[in-house]
Amino acid sequence: MFQGRKLLIATKHKKENVIAPIFEKEFGVSCFVSDKFDTDTLGTFSGEIARKEDALTTLRNKCLLAMKENDCDLGIASEGSFGMHPTIFIAHADDEMLILIDKKNELEIIAREISTDTNFNGSEIKNEAGLLEFATQVKFPSHGLILKPSEKDISKIVKGITDERILNESFHEMMKEFGKVYVETDMRALYNPTRMKVIEKATLKLVNSIRSLCPMCETPGFVVSDAKMGLPCDCCNSATRSTLSFIYACKKCNHTSEEFYPHKKMTEDPTYCDFCNP
To answer: Taking burial as the number of CB atoms within 10 A of a residue's CB, which of 85, 94, 140, 213 is the most buried?
Structure first.
């Protein structure tokens, strides 16, 4: 289905460095990037352009708009979000989504990786010592930094800082002009090796999803579409909120199948039972 075809990677931040080798090896495609569409028009991490849509809509639009500008029928894009982890509330998280769109075969496959492995951070800095302490904490200079007057003030921004001399000069210039400086991690993939590794993990997940074929029509992307709760308690046999089964669905022929006990256990510990441990 993909062998020998050209695959557009919709990025301006060097994500092709991790995506292209994997897809070329696994599917025999020829990957390319293009500057015909500026992905930053859909939003920037540093705040100059706000992301107007949710992450999934933005991801899909990014891929489709880039494909349209390049007259290409096979494309891939990624979109990252940063903030508190959805379940581990004391930790920051990198939430990466990747999408493959194949117009020729009317196919759309999505993968997602949520990781606590991120240096995402920001702080108001009042002196050079505090600046260097923050920089060390977030893995500078291998990871880039951004300086601006305050968290919401984008009247002046210095991005992609990976040199200590430039960091100090920019800090003192901004302090002289505004009297305060806000420093934050540059989360663009080319300035953030930690994020690039999470994108790589998401890419491998996408490969696995593509390789999962529908048993009826053999269309790629036969993946989990829903999960059913109800794993029985090991003590009282009551249904718990833990996962009993996964539902797999094909977007092409609508075939579905149910996999029971996907986490390889047939009962749940009473600790997670609302009756034994209300």
So the answer is: 94
Helix intervals (H) in the chain: 16-27, 55-69, 128-137, 164-178, 193-211
Residue 91: its pLDDT value, please?
83
Q: What is the pLDDT of residues 102-121, one digit of tens each?
A: 999 999 999 999 999 999 99
Instruction: Sort strands 92-102 and 107-115 into parallel, antiparallel or unpaired.
Output: antiparallel
Residue 172, token pair as written in the block:
């003192």
Do 223 and 212 meet the contact criterion of CB atoms below 8 Å apart? yes
Distance between CA atoms of residues 127 and 227, nearest Å? 51
SS3 at position 47: coil
**Nearest-angstrom CA–CA distance, 160 and 191:** 6
Instruction: Name the residue among 165, 158, 92, 176 with its Cα closest to residue 132.
Output: 165
Residue 134, token pair as written in the block: 């923050």
pLDDT in tens, 203-220: 999 999 999 999 999 999
pTM of whole model > 0.70?
yes
Unique residue bearing structure tokens 């705040």: 47
Q: What percent of the chain has pLDDT over 90?
A: 90
Cα 88 from Cα 135, distance rounded (Å): 25
- For 61, phi then psi, to 5°, come to -65, -40
pLDDT of residue 148: 96
